[in-house]
Amino acid sequence: MKFILDIGCGSYPNKHANVFVDKFPWNDKQRSGKKIKKFPKNFVAADVECLPFRDDAFDYCYCTHLIEHTSWANRALDEMGRVAKAGYISAPHMYYEFSFGKRFHKWFFYVKGGRIVMLQKDKSLFEYSPFGRELKTAFLVGVVYKMLKRAKLIEAGCHWKGHPSYVVVYNDGKCFTENKKE
User: Fold this and answer.
1) Measured in Å, how far apart are the chain's first and last C-alpha atoms?
2) What are phi and psi of 160, to 5 degrees?
3) Backbone phi, then psi, for 145, in 5-degree steps?
4) pLDDT of 27-68, one tens digit each?
5) pLDDT higher than threshold 70 for residue 17
6) What is the number of domains present in the chain?
7) What is the CATH number of the domain that holds 134?
8) HEC string of the chain?
9) CA dist list (Å): 141 to 126, 145, 146
10) Res. 95 pLDDT band, cuts 50 70 90
11) Is the CB of residue 48 less than 8 Å from the CB of residue 63?
12) Whole domain around residue 121: which residue ranges?
């Protein structure tokens, strides 16, 4: 039997996973208002930056639309690499996030050459975003969304084995990298 972890399962747990983690299972503020109606079996309330599992406890882990919420992205990525032998991470693509992103998302995310690149968001960017909180016109929003979708820039994702390869850049200039690959 394979052990598969879903980190940040929220309201839509991955059907292939058999262990589920969410930090705020009773708080739906960052879940588009979708409350977790029924907790799956083997549910653990935990923080991705400090997972309560032994090293290599899982064969695979999924982490979709969670990493952009973390305070310390490099810690979260290291924890995923510590507890799982392989995995998949996805988040809103940087271009989508810039155009339509949420104020509570803390990171821009994209993948280049199999390496995850994360740039900490500066809250003042929303003042310059083409939309920010106020959508200019439904037509313009539709056009930009279609362009991003056609260019496959809505979501970015990355499969990894051994340990996620990443570059994380914080606003204060600190940069963390991890290059371990099998």
Assistant:
1) 23
2) -140, 155
3) -60, -45
4) 666 656 566 666 778 999 999 999 999 999 999 999 999 999
5) yes
6) 1
7) 3.40.50
8) CCCEEEECCCCCCCCCCCEEEECCCCCCCCCCCCCCCCCCCCEEECECCECCCCCCCECEEEEECCHHHCCCHHHHHHHHHHHECEEEEEEEEHHHHHHHCCCCCCEEEEEECCEEEEEECCHHHHHCCCCCCCCCCHHHHHHHHHHHHHCCCCEEEEEEECCCCEEEECCCCCEEEECCCC
9) 16, 6, 9
10) confident
11) yes
12) 4-178
And the tokens for 2? 């394979």
Confidence band for 181, pLDDT divided at 50, 70 and 90: very low
Q: Output the six-digit token pair for 116.
A: 């995850």
Place of tokens 């992103």: 101
The alpha carbon of residue 28 and the mean position of all alpha carbons in its chain are separated, in whole angstroms, by: 16
Short-list 79, 48, 82, 53, CA closest to 65 = 48
Structure tokens belonging to residue 111: 């993948």
- Residue tagged 């960017």 (tokens): 125
Q: In what order do the strands lie in the sheet with 60-64?
A: 43-45, 19-22, 4-7, 60-64, 86-92, 155-161
Rounded distance, CA 70 to CA 119, Å?
12
Identity of residue 147: M
- Give me the amino acid identity at 7: I
- Distances in Å between the alpha carbon of 96 and those of 88, 93, 145, 147, 152? 20, 5, 8, 10, 10
